[in-house]
Design goal:
It is built from eleven helices and 13 strands. With about 350 residues, the chain is an alpha/beta fold. The chain has two domains: about 240 residues, NAD(P)-binding Rossmann-like Domain (Rossmann fold, 3-Layer(aba) Sandwich); about 110 residues, 2-Layer Sandwich (Dihydrodipicolinate Reductase, domain 2). Helix 3 packs across helix 4 and helix 6 runs parallel beside helix 8. The radius of gyration is 20 Å and the shape is globular. The mean pLDDT is about 95.
Length: about 350
């Protein structure tokens, strides 16, 4: 079976979990192994993914082998695979653009980004030289210009894109049309956790509709201690993130809530939580006889492995689409793995449609 040649944009916690998983599942896949929706997609197993290019801006990562850089500060995710193969790939200096929030400089080195004093590489040239086929984007929330820079690089080099951040590419009419015109697959936007706050909130909201009760108001408040939560302290970077998370839940309701009755989004940075994300959720509803009731829930997850469990399927579906000659937004895998896909579906419907798509339907 051919390999999937992958380019990583952002060598942070999510990239660390992804690379650890690629190595972990080389020998750990069995009937008892947890964490995989699809051990195989179109003949591709996780072990078929090979990183051929990586980009970052942090001085502790740029110039280092990617197998070492994924464990460098400020990364703080769980380590479940200590040894990664040395594949000869060195992290290249990315154009910074709007990828680093200014307030990062006010926080300690082990919590924040520290930009390398290096000349940015030519992304298009690196992608071409590496022979990358799929690019996965893990840039920080609010990196509008930087994400678009990489989207354009994919269009210029014939590389498929998996956009894991809330900058709208697959779900943006002009960008999705550009990928369709180039006959390049794009999966996006804004990765759902494998089993995290968004999917739980969506399922509970949909369950209420299916059971005939009326959701009146709801909130989802999240805290964490990784660079994602530190980055999101800057409120100006959160517009697309709030839209993505809120629309993801609203899409499951028969009657969307008014803006004043729904609040979903990151709430605070708690350094000692590291990559642990804690979600506080409340749903207030009325049942039979309009009697008021409510659900309150606390969810604690390791954020980055939760993300990698979905990205691993998006990468393989992008490769499969390349083989099949399919371009533009991939509706099924986007609806299954992303918060803000081109078309929102109920999660059970997205799973069924994805299985048919994988099978060639």
């Amino acid at each position: 079976m051919a390999q999937i040649r992958l380019a990583l944009v952002g060598v942070g916690n999510c990239a660390s979990s992804l690379l650890q998983g690629i190595e972990y599942y080389k020998s750990a896949v069995s009937a008892e192994t947890a964490g995989l929706v699809h051990p195989e997609i179109g003949g591709y197993r996780i072990s078929d993914i090979r990183v051929v290019a990586a980009f970052d801006v942090d001085r502790r990562k740029v110039g280092r082998p990617v197998a070492e850089a994924v464990f460098a500060p400020p990364n703080c995710t769980a380590v479940f695979q200590t040894e990664l193969p040395s594949d000869g790939v060195t992290v290249r200096m990315s154009p910074v653009l709007d990828g680093v929030a200014q307030h990062m400089r006010d926080y300690p080195d082990d919590k924040a980004f520290r930009v390398a004093d290096e000349k940015p590489c030519d992304v298009v040239e690196v992608l071409r030289e590496s022979g990358a086929e799929v690019l996965v984007c893990y840039l920080p929330v609010g990196s509008e210009d930087a994400v678009r820079h990489y989207a354009q690089a994919c269009l210029d080099t014939g590389v498929a894109m998996v956009n894991c951040v809330p900058v709208f590419i697959a779900s943006h009419p002009e960008w999705s049309a550009a990928f369709a015109k180039k006959n390049l697959p794009v999966v996006g936007d804004d990765i759902k956790s494998q089993l995290g706050a968004t999917i739980v909130h969506r399922m509970l909201a949909r369950l209420m509709g299916d059971r005939g009760v009326r959701l009146d108001r709801t909130y989802q408040l999240n805290t964490g201690g990784n660079t994602d939560f530190l980055n999101m302290l800057e409120q100006t970077r959160l517009r697309s993130k709030r839209i993505s998370k809120t629309e993801s839940v609203q899409s499951q309701l028969d009657v969307p809530l008014e803006d004043g009755n729904i609040h979903i989004g990151p709430s605070d940075f708690v350094p000692w939580q590291k990559d642990n994300k804690v979600c506080f959720m409340r749903l207030e509803y009325r049942g039979f006889g309009d009697v008021p009731m409510n659900i309150e829930l606390r969810l604690s997850v390791e954020d980055s492995p939760n993300s990698a469990g979905m990205a691993i399927d998006g990468i393989r579906c992008a490769k499969l689409a390349l083989e099949r000659g399919l371009g533009g937004p991939l509706k099924e895998i986007s609806a299954f793995t992303m918060k803000h896909p081109p078309e929102q579906l109920r999660d059970t419907d997205a799973r069924e449609q994805l299985e048919r798509w994988i099978a060639g339907g």
